[in-house]
What does this fold into?
Amino acid sequence: MRGRMNKIRQLLKDENIDRATLLTVLVAALGYFVDIFDLLMFSIVRIKSLVSLGVPEAELLSTGVYLLNVQMAGLLVGGILWGIWGDRMGRISVLFGSILLYSIANIANGFVDSVETYAVLRFVAGVGLAGELGAGVTLASELFPRAWRGLGTTFIASIGVSGAVFAAIVAEMTDWRTAYIIGGCMGLALLVLRVNVRESVLYEKMSQKTAGVSRGNFLMLLTNRKLFIKYIAVILVGAPLWGMVGLFITFTPEFAKDFGMTIIPKAGTAVLACYAGLFVGDAFSGLLSQYLRSRRKAVAVFLVLMSISILAYVLAPHESLGEYYSLCFLMGIGAGYWAMFVQMGAEQFGTNIRATAATSIPNMVRAFIIPATGAFHFLIPLVGVTMAGVTVLAVMISFAAASLMVLKETFDTDLDYVEG
It folds into this structure.
């Protein structure tokens, strides 16, 4: 064991990966852990919290969709704002500002007394939650050598998605108000660790030598045809991930009833099972990408796995809670290309708009749940709950597969460049 650790230390030294870099990636991973904890908490406590606030049973689904969309709208706004901030003011400042905002909002969530206040705070929390992942992945991509940066992102994503598992456990052991407060307090505690994180060398280099370059220009992603095509393509590649979680997992009780289950599974336990699968899938997709030396091939494999897992979810027997949660776990594995998708988003763009792209892209994907839930809600009276969900996901996966063909391979791309 000691000999193996010495070899690892020597390899890290040969690749110029110092302790400060490793600490920065670790802190980014813990930040994403808290981010996912808070982000998924609403999906876990949706019914408990709405019943507590006096929402009638007949309105639980529609009110839940409304609040989820409000939260995702906050993520959309925050993804753009924090991305621009990260390119203009530095990646580290985003890690501090975003976690402070969503921690305070989630603590306040523990004291809401109306759906209206709940909605406002979910929007504010969404704005704050939008900054963590993009800033963390941008840092990992710019601090790590080419051959290692995919593993850095895989580490961040794998640790991060386990936050959902912890969220499900906390929600099961406490009431929904306490669960929100615990998430907020974890975020505030993490601020202490962030004092020692380091800024991206590529960002500092760009700031010193390219003063005339436009930084954090979000409009560049929309007005430059080449950049716009890449931007939209990456978003569409990631859309099925959140579509699957936002529909099949968040609305577990509704799907279970449509399957004819007599004992209705809990959304919190479904989240736990799904994100346990995501933990496995993210780790495997990162390793697969390293083995294939390709982001695109790894993502393509997982689009196939996701399609198979969704078919299994719909067609397999649902005779027990164990079988249902096992299917959620399999869907989580199939959706486990989140790390590679976010890595692709960071690697497709130059240093001057990398944070803008890498931070806004995953939040554009999260906000994609707004039209997805809208289509889902519209189709339910026409084809039923299950077929409505399957139809929406089938369209999203088809667009993702087509978009993957548009994107260039970025495994060995040199990231030390700017967009003109």
The chain is about 80% helix and 0% strand.
